[in-house]
Design goal:
The protein is mainly α and about 230 residues long. The chain contains 8 helices and 4 strands.
Length: about 230
């Protein structure tokens, strides 16, 4: 009896074990097997020894399908919602301790001023809202046609609208908030095709808008550094 009981200790169960009911007739099933030695090809050829249950692959496949469908059916801004806020918050730091006389000053003939870069970003936001949400009345005094693209702006005389740092910073914040709100009203998902604009789908368009703000944030900080300004940790 004792010897038989000792032989049972440490044995790995091989019979099926019924798992929790997952609803809709699905029930997870675990089936244990003897320990197997798994070799994983890793940069240093590490070896992993583990005992793992065999999951019900059909249940797992259905879960993956559901999560893929759920993600793709999201609104196109859903995955970039927080990143949008972070990008424009970072841009707002560009205006810290910036003098009005430096706002529209180009540090080099081939570079734009901080004000012109801001006008470029505002022009893009207004343009895309007007394109994808035309029923929304949306405009800005800084959505200047002359600021639509670097190559067009740099070849022209420097822009100098009668606005100071406080007004420009407030206008960018207003435009980005209202633009985001308007774009949320567009009935489009991540994979919805895009007829015109950056990217082939609305999801790619959302990715681009966050990248666009982040890219010009770094550009604006570089302009300030070339002017000899001491900025925050950017």
């Amino acid at each position: 009896g004792c010897a038989a009981r000792r032989r049972q200790v440490g044995r790995t169960p091989t019979r099926g074990v019924r798992g929790p009911n997952l609803g809709s007739g699905l029930r997870a099933e675990r089936r244990w097997s003897r320990p197997e030695r798994l070799r994983i090809q890793y940069p240093r050829n590490l070896e992993l020894h583990q005992v793992a249950p065999r999951l019900n692959l059909e249940c797992l496949r259905k879960c993956v399908q559901f999560m893929t469908w759920h993600t793709r059916s999201m609104h196109f801004l859903a995955l970039q919602d927080s990143a949008w806020d972070s990008a424009f918050w970072e841009f707002s730091l560009v205006f810290e301790d910036l003098a009005n006389e430096d706002l529209w000053t180009r540090p080099h003939p081939r570079l734009l001023s901080v004000g012109e870069i801001t006008a470029l970003v505002i022009h893009a936001l207004v343009r895309y809202v007007q394109m994808y949400r035309p029923e929304t009345e949306f405009d800005s005094p800084l959505a200047l046609h002359e600021a639509r693209y670097y190559l067009h702006t740099v070849e022209s005389d420097p822009l100098h609208p009668p606005l100071g740092v406080t007004e420009v910073a407030a206008e960018l914040d207003r435009v980005q908030r209202e633009a985001k709100l308007a774009l949320r009203q567009v009935s489009a998902e991540l994979d919805t095709p895009l007829s015109e604009g950056p990217g082939e789908t609305f999801g790619q368009f959302a990715d681009y808008m966050v990248f666009h703000a982040a890219y010009h944030t770094g550009q604006a900080f570089s302009v300030r550094h070339l002017m000899g300004h001491v900025t925050n940790d950017n």
